[in-house]
Amino acid sequence: MKTLRPPTLLLLLLLAGCRGPDTIDVAPGAALRLCPPEAAPDFFLNQEVVITLPDGSRETLMAAMENRRGVLGLVAATPLGQTLFSIRVRDGKALVDVRAPLPGRFDPRMLPALVQFALWPEAAVRAGLGPGLRLEQYGARRELLLRDQLVWSATRTGEALVMEAPGLGLRLRIRTLDDL
């Protein structure tokens, strides 16, 4: 498995940019508004994210995420510890601190938006759906649909959260480091 090079991660997440201070495009034409951190319980996680790209190659990213006292914080780094960026979400706004050069159109706020899509309570996610988006929940599987077309899915398995964007050819397998 290759280690993640900063430009590869950023190109993989390069989508359509952003629409406003609290609305993030997670796929072309699919925008989510950030959920309030207080809509979810407090937690702290260190995670390994294995990203499968459209060509079948794999990249690895390390992420530390904490949700506490109305603030969601996320730090993204390479497996060797190079911090790529950090994000703090509070009051619907995301403050981003970039530590490595990012492509101009990359919006790192997409990461907390996807985490919230996958893990936040259903009602909080529904409140942040952009035009044409619909959220479906089937047990351990959650789907984000744009005009009945699957945009993202998130499935909880015994040891991982698997997120897929069929239209983008992306797959993320997220495991808590305690589970490795």
Helix and strand layout, with pairings?
Blueprint: H1 6-12, E1 18-20, E2 23-27, E3 30-33, E4 43-52, E5 58-68, E6 71-77, E7 83-90, E8 93-98, H2 110-119, H3 122-127, E9 133-138, E10 141-146, E11 149-156, E12 161-165, E13 170-176
Antiparallel strand pairs: 1-2, 2-3, 4-5, 4-13, 5-6, 6-7, 7-8, 9-10, 10-11, 11-12, 12-13
How would you describe this protein?
The two termini are 15 Å apart. The longest helix is centred in the middle third of the chain and has 10 residues, at 110-119. The chain contains three helices and 13 strands; from the N terminus they run αββββββββααβββββ. A hairpin with a 2-residue loop joins β5 and β6 (71-77). The chain has helices spanning 6-12, 110-119, 122-127, and strands at 18-20, 23-27, 30-33, 43-52, 58-68, 71-77, 83-90, 93-98, 133-138, 141-146, 149-156, 161-165, 170-176. It has one domain (6-179): outer membrane lipoprotein receptor (LolB), chain A (Clam), CATH 2.50.20. It has 180 residues and is mainly beta. The strands form two sheets. Strands 8-7-6-5-4-13-12-11-10-9 form a ten-stranded antiparallel beta sheet. Strands 1-2-3 form a three-stranded antiparallel beta sheet. Mean pLDDT is 83; it is low at 1-20. The radius of gyration is 15 Å and the shape is globular.
